[in-house]
Amino acid sequence: MNKIFEIPLYAYERSPDQDADTPVRRKVVVVGAGPIGLGAAIDFAQQGIEVVVLDDNDKVSFGSRAVCYAKRPLEILDRLGCGKPMVDKGVEWNIGKVFFDERQVYQFDLLPEDGHEFPAFINLQQYYFEEYMVNRVRELQAAGAPIEIRGNNKVLKVEEKGDHAAILVDTPEGQYDLEAEWLIACDGATSPIRGMMGLDFVGRIFEDNFLIADVIMDAEFPTERWFWFDPPFNKGQSALLHKQPDGVWRIDLQLGWDIDKEEEKKPENVIPRLKAMLGDDVEFELEWVSIYTFQCRRMETFRKGRVLFAGDAAHQVSPFGARGANSGLQDTDNLVWKMKLIFDGIADESLLDSYDYERIYGADENIMNSSRSTDFITPKSDMSRVLRDAVLDLSEVHEFARPLVNSGRLSVPCTYDGSPLNSADALLDGPARTRPGSPCPDVPLGDDFLLPKLGDKFTLLTIDAEAPESIEESGVTVTRLALSTKNDPTQMLKERFLGDAESGVYLIRPDQHVAARRPSFDENLIRAAIRRAIGKE
Amino acid sequence: MSDLTLAPNIAGADDFYAELLATHEGLSKSDSDALNARLVLVLANHIGDRAILTQALAAAALKSEE
Ligand SMILES: Cc1cc2nc3c(=O)[nH]c(=O)nc-3n(C[C@H](O)[C@H](O)[C@H](O)COP(=O)(O)OP(=O)(O)OC[C@H]3O[C@@H](n4cnc5c(N)ncnc54)[C@H](O)[C@@H]3O)c2cc1C
């Protein structure tokens, strides 16, 4: 049987652009059909903006790579029309076990918070993730949306020209020139475009190698995450076992720095390692094996004129805590509505400075978290190992030490504190989790949920407060969503948006982040907050 | 905000010190290092206050305060 990652999903087809006498200028060109490029393109197409995606091959991610997707990206994907099939296919887990040496030191239950439409996260192979996104592209095309994926279109050259980018593309039928009013570079961690433009990518390399194996097995292991520090089958190193759909299991084995990667990747070397871990009697088949070295780094700035960088091209983290694809989707979620306002003549290009501010803020937070996990999992000095082992030994007997065990922290979206688009917090008794800059948490509303009602437009959420049904300011239409705590049987609306306040008025951005909040409607202040949220104040 | 106590605070200082040494008695260097590390974590958790812990780290590093 062919795996989905072996089938061309967007096979090369000749485009009329290849036969044009002068280079055709497209509105938006996205380079890279990975999760981030596809996410950007779907978002543009849903907003009615013409978009062309160029990718140097014609298939989804080879092998799985990312397996864990967190709530916030799933909510974003739901807005993009492909979150639900992912959740339906994905595996959910709540129990994690931590082993040290030969013992299980403790187990935990994530006890995810109630009242969210989407789970805290799911496990799903990256190839399915991308396949569902490609399906969504096809659905949009069938509905007449201006979106196109060009497979086997490899970008060879990019030049930023002030009001456009000039692109040289290679195809199986030769090269052609193309222009983009705006180019979104989602060409992955090795971003050739970054290189072509001579841009930096600095940070920290972790001198360690990990063997990543996806195995298919009919095993009795429960749907739990098992993490080993210094196990007998991988002395001095770490190991992880995680379930994916279709009986596929993700195994990560830390190998250390001084190894021969090509040797280690050979099945005759991989299989004995896996047998030592799984036991001799477990039957399994290798689906995909790879060896990785991890890095934590980001670009100095994510924008160079008409070229914007997103996803792994802009920032790279170690996989502990699953922040790569998860945070990349938040990049384009942040970017596309801003570009739409610029295209509509409502905002100035300077609004994109806030993309840089907000997503660099997010990238730094992710890099910090994933560096900390990596430092715990792979101690880099004698004393950091002594302290790490002390935490693990204590965690077996004393509960206090368990929060210090860091085998990867769940990816959560960041609050854009200090963003130039935020207005000062005026709901002083309000909960900290919904302060300006925060992504709105979901809330159950009868049979429905809050986030789908916010959608991708500016919203004025009023809770037990009066306000006009709609406000026009500087070309932006803000529509009211009126809710009441009288109709809040779970009290979650009150808990998540009011706290000790009696009433609240929230200005919410198209990416569902809070721009401003106050106890009641004040026309002048809300108008000022709208102008500020579009970079006009 | 409270401050880290750096004035003498242990009644029976000699007793405590003897008990500390006794706990390490007979341990190899690496077992002693491990014990010290666990002790630091137990005490740090008891203190809990993040600001005090920062002051304690600086005091232990023999950094004089500005
Ligand atoms: C072992 C491992 C485990 C991981 N686990 C997780 C996890 O659990 N959760 C998570 O969120 N993330 C995880 N990640 C990270 C995740 O895989 C990446 O963050 C994600 O794939 C980034 O998406 P992207 O679209 O930015 O880049 P990519 O997926 O790398 O896509 C880049 C695309 O650009 C194309 N391209 C490159 N150069 C050119 C060119 N010159 N012209 C045209 N096209 C080009 C490539 O073909 C590719 O399709 C993991 C990564 C690894 C390696």
Share of residues in helices of chain B: 55-70%
Assembly state of the chains shown: heterodimer
Number of helices of chain B: 3
Bound molecules: flavin-adenine dinucleotide
How many H/I helices of chain A?
A: 13
Q: Could you state the CATH homologous superfamily of the domain at 4-11 and 24-90 and 113-201 and 304-365 in chain A? A: FAD/NAD(P)-binding domain
CATH class of the domain at 4-11 and 24-90 and 113-201 and 304-365 in chain A equals Alpha Beta
Segments of chain A where pLDDT lies below 50 for 5+ residues? none
Biggest chain-to-chain interface with counts: A-B, 12 and 9 residues
Strand share of the residues of chain B?
under 5%
The tally of beta strands of chain A, per DSSP, is 25
Largest sheet of chain B: none
Please tell me what the overall shape of chain B is. globular
Write down the overall mean pLDDT of chain B: 94
Q: Kindly, what is the distance between the CA atoms of the first and last residues of chain A, rounded to a whole number of angstroms?
A: 58 Å
Q: Provide the gyration radius of chain B in Å.
A: 14 Å
Looking at CATH, which topology of the domain at 4-11 and 24-90 and 113-201 and 304-365 in chain A would you report?
A: FAD/NAD(P)-binding domain
